[in-house]
Amino acid sequence: DAGITQSPRHKVTETGTPVTLRCHQTENHRYMYWYRQDPGHGLRLIHYSYGVKDTDKGEVSDGYSVSRSKTEDFLLTLESATSSQTSVYFCAISESLAGRPGEQFFGPGTRLTVL
Amino acid sequence: AQSVAQPEDQVNVAEGNPLTVKCTYSVSGNPYLFWYVQYPNRGLQFLLKYITGDNLVKGSYGFEAEFNKSQTSFHLKKPSALVSDSALYFCAVRVRMDSSYKLIFGSGTRLLVRP
Question: B94 to chain A, minimum CA–CA distance in Å?
Fold first, then answer.
């Protein structure tokens, strides 16, 4: 999985609790992304990062925040988890090719269940 | 709106027969198109991409895809299917964002290859 790990791989939590998912890469790629995968929707972008401390929103960012304090780590936080955030979360990375992102490579995913 | 459509939720094919998984897109400008495959409980794996040039793109595991600009399609093909090709396939198009690019995914097509 292209030097990408995600932790935890599985988590069950209760509504209203904070949750942080971690993505760690060993490829030194500039770009990092968080997606969620839900049946019938494919993958949808939550947030992305184009450098250390440089992040921006994707198409389904409500209820999520991110941080990237170093190149290798990209954290996704659910401030107060809701049942609608039950999903499989994927991190992806891509390198910079002539200043633009190359193809994305995905981590193994985190299955989150919010009860 | 920029989008990707995979019109078939599932494709069934017998082992040894050719397979096609359909994808159509709607983007402004020249499209950068991708195919990914997802095996159970795994992240997405990159199969192939079209950036420019030859309309027939060859990728991993014997897959290829044909870009057709007039029909705005990018169908995935393989001359002879294997049982091990059974998986979930996603088509994606790269679109420009403010600070980076993102992938817009289709909803996925499940390929089932019968022995």
Answer: 9
Mean of the per-residue pLDDT values of chain A: 92
% of chain B exceeding 70 in pLDDT: 99
For residue B96, what are the contacts with CB-CB under 8 A and spacing of at least 6?
A: none
Virtual CA dihedral for B104, B105, B107, B108, nearest 10 degrees?
Answer: 170
The stretch B80-101 carries a mean pLDDT of 89
With CA atoms as reference, report the closest residue to B95 among A104, A90, A91: A104
Pairs of residues, one from chain A and one from chain B, whose beta carbons lie less than 8 Å apart? 55
Percent residues over pLDDT 90 in chain B: 73
Say whether A90 and B44 touch across the interface (CB within 8 A). yes
Nearest CA in chain B to A43: B105
> Which residue ranges of chain A lie beneath pLDDT 50?
none
Q: Please answer yes or no on whether B42 and A109 come within 8 Å at the CB atom.
A: yes
For residue A8, give both structure tokens: 């935890």
* A51-81 pLDDT tens trace: 999 999 998 999 999 999 999 999 999 999 9
Q: Cα-flanking dihedrals φ and ψ of residue A105, to 5°?
A: -120, 140
Residue with structure tokens 């925040």? A65
Residue ranges of E strands in chain B: 3-5, 10-14, 19-21, 24-26, 32-38, 44-50, 56-58, 64-68, 73-78, 87-96, 101-105, 109-114
